[in-house]
Amino acid sequence: MSVACTSDEMMTVAAARMLRNGAVCFVGIGLPSTAANLARLTHAPDAVLVYESGPIGAKPPVLPLSIGDGNLAETADTVVSTPEIFRYWLQGGRIDVGFLGAAQLDRFANINTTVVGSYKNPKVRLPGAGGAPEISSSAKEVLIIVKQTKRTFVEKLDFVTSVGFLSGGNSRELAGLPGNGPAAVITDLCILRPHPVSRELEVTSVHPGVNRESILKSTGWELRFAENCGETASPNSVELETLRDLKERTAAAHGVEGDAA
Amino acid sequence: MAEWVTLAEAIAANVHDGETVALEGFTHLIPFAAGHEIIRQQRRNLSLIRMTPDLIYDQLIGAGCAAKLTFSWGGNPGVGSLHRFRDAVENGWPGPLEIEERSHSDLANAYVAGAANLPFAVLRGYTGSDLPRVNDKIRSVTCPFTGELLAATPSVRPDVTVIHAQKADWKGNVLLWGILGVQKEAALAAKRAIVTVEERVRELNAPPNACILPSWVVTAVCEVPRGATPSYAHGYYDRDNVFYRAWDRISRDRDCFNAWIKANILETEDFAEYLQAVLQ
After folding, report:
1. Coil, strand or helix at B159
2. Which residues pair with residue B151 across a beta bridge?
């Protein structure tokens, strides 16, 4: 049974569905953390959530506000140091899925989280790389969750912080990056996947109630729709109730929503 | 051997103008009391290193203590921007701030290299990223065995590292637990290490393999209860998320920020008095 929901809820649910049960997932804070925890609380109870602050197998009862909240450590299978997380677990090839956000994204799913404008004289100084450059290169695959607007989906990035498919085609393979790159980009309007040959993102699923025109208007390049592009299934009542419960618990615990960042 | 001293004495003796300083703690155990004391003693031209500058470096940068910042993620976690950091980078206020930007993986590896007394860190990273274009310290090295091209970056070797921990015994042996970040590596990579702790105890009673910094690698140890607030100390108090959100408003405007620093740091005697001031 499908239930009426907001576009943000649709985005989070669609992203959560991408995480298969048992996958070892390196989780960024904010939207990725919300989606990964929703997956863990619904169809993927055995997903292993790894946070860059050191918790491995975290099962937080409410969404963490920061990447190093105490409830991540308390519920983890083990807590290791930050160097160990990046050296043994990420670089060591133990991560199946890297779950990332983005400030800007281009047609090959390269990501900017560094600056808007020039690096030397930025219009907006963004937080920067964090763990993303190595997550995007070393995780076996990457999921990106981001709201789709003309400001985020740009023709050309102001700065390439973390790579997707570089200039497309086989350029990622030629660069020798260990992981396979982005498997999907999940937005509040649709799901995009890389074309198997050109590696350019194309829409493979449109969320219910969204028309193609509004997706095109929210994209800074000439976006293509896949031949077999379908419609995303609406959230079912379990998905939606679990998400809303999680957010309510989080708000009660922090006095703020966990993916406010 | 670590010397038990007051925080004011530890900073006066071990943090000097123009030095390279790392105050570490990954969301957890951020040494805020020590950061405040550096502001109170009005240190200048510091070269600051920290993976996540967080509010602690927003305060130091806005208060004019920093000439350079080496970092990998500069946001207010769960809230948004660090306004004083942004104002320094975007507008050069209160003075120009040189930045050396790296990734988390790089800086974590660079602390390990520093602790291991190596000149550089090696990692599989940065391929395709623009970061090496804007930071000429990010270079590459060819593996002599396989020919693989790897990223090479200078190790981090601070003049002084400051961390906060849960406990130290009367000899100055330090115990910390929970999310450990890079604190052990940062302390061992530095020429001098200052540790503030929640409490001074007779015995640590720690199990084998616990994260302990033996007294003889610590320069000064100071008892500063709640010394990590508004970050948290596992087993002692939670993160003050309300303050993290309030900081967005306090720090957005230069005058508001200056007034806050003056009233709460410059015009308080120590961290205990600061805690009373902010609680009022």
Report:
1. coil
2. B123, B140
> Testing the interface with B: which of A62, A81, A113 to mutate, by most B Cβ within 10 A?
A81
Q: Indicate if A52 belongs to the active site.
A: yes
- Is B3-102+157-279 a CATH 3.40.1080.10 domain? yes
Residue A251: phi and psi, rounded to 5, are -60, -40
Interface of B with A in 253-272 (CB under 8 A): none
- The closest alpha carbon to A210, from A189, A234, A186, belongs to A189
The answer to whether position A2 is within a domain reads no
Domain count, chain A: 1
B49 with B57: CB under 8 angstroms? no
Angle among Cα B117, B119, B124 to the nearest 5 degrees reads 110
ipTM of the shown complex: 0.95
CA-nearest of A39, A24, A185 to A97 is A24
Identify the domain containing residue A106 by its residue range.
7-254
Domain ranges of chain B: 3-102+157-279, 104-154
pLDDT digits (tens, 9 = 90+) for A154-198: 999 999 999 999 999 999 999 999 999 999 999 999 999 999 999
CA distances from A78 to A24, A58, A195 (A): 14, 8, 38
Residue A1: inside a domain, yes or no?
no
- How far is it, in rounded angstroms, from Cα B96 to Cα B92? 4
Nearest to B183 by CA among B13, B49, B45, B11: B49
